[in-house]
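Let us work through a complete example step by step.
Step 1: write down the sequence.
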Amino acid sequence: MVSLERGPTLPRLARWFFLLSLVLLVLASPAQAQSDEAIFVMTFDGPVNPILVSYIERGIEQAEKHGATALILRLDTPGGQVDLTQDIVKTMRAANVPIIVYVWPTGAHAGSAGTFITLAGHAAAMTPGSSIGAASPIDGSGQDLGETIQKKLTNILSADVENLAKRRGEDAVTWARSAVEQAAAATAEEALALNVIDAIAADVDELIEKLDGFEVEVNGEPQTLHLVGTPVVDLPTTNLENILNTLLNAIIVPGIAIMLIVLGVQGIISEFSQPGGYFAGIVGAIALMLGLYALGVLNANWVGLGFIFLSFLLFFLDVKAPSHGALTVAGVITFVFGAALLFRGTNVEIPWPTIIGLAALTLFFFSFLVAKAFGAQRKTPSWGMESLVGQQGTTRTDLDPKGKVFLQGEYWDAELEVKSKMVPAGNPVTVVDRKGFVLIVRS
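Step 2: predict the structure and record it as tokens.
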């Protein structure tokens, strides 16, 4: 995602379930900063996503815990989702430590959602050659929204950005509204002239010099920044956050998200149809978790996911109890409907080619591969005592309920399935089961 988006709130359960699952697969992350009365410096490069939310929450927690003088967030982002941006803004404005948002390095951009985050800082700065703005709402595929929803979101976001910029004066408010309403952008020099930011600095050292003695307001209380001479402590993203950020940026594409869901379910079903290898089940479980997490980030309609799982159930039932294709046809229709419903109302373009292709793949998977696997499991054994089940023999003594039967050239001890009946010698019987070396038969 490269733009400010609007949609239902990201399910926190899906986010934390995914994070907790991958913690088990990744080694411990680096130790946190442990320095009191220092300036903590965070760095994030990429779209606004749940990783940035948790990173900022962790940074503020560490800064407050150790009594940090200030927290600097070096930011380079093209933007992201509205709900996540709102979470970040609320967290920053509630912090008890001064937060300085620093658009860095040269060429960096605080675009779209990044504009809101920059304005939410208690102080803001940019490096020469960076830019800020272009915060108009668009959909997840980068296209304009419909006229009605475009107007609605623009008005809401204009009010939000005005509230953030109000403390900076009328020029900053006018520019901030134009960033949302007209996709206006500004260079570092232009932003400073409009009082959108407080300083231009080439690096952290220069930023500290320029903002030393600067007065900010933290939770309604004025506070003067005493920065010069204060130790600077780097608070980087952890190994886990780096992995998740890279992975998340790769999978939050509608077509890939639904593909992961389908492959995940198919892998798990394949494990049940041919148990023992574990590879298909493990890969399927990981793909399913990644897919669910991606759908959460994309604000997918979870009712659609229910229809997709229902389609797999219909396919499975048709394999176990063939219905001459009726359940398969219903499964295909249910799958296509559910996949399309996933992205209804989310401002995300429905990936029809991927949906149709996955429907065909799923149909092939169940009609051939899984059907063959279950057919092999149901096939009558051709050797050993299990092969005697279903065979016909002849009683050599009366079965009342026990006796002898002659079967495939051999005499066997036998017992009637229904013990209240008696079968005279010389009558045919059919083997229905066995208990050790005793055959269970019926007339």
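Step 3: interpret the result. The chain has 14 helices and 16 strands.
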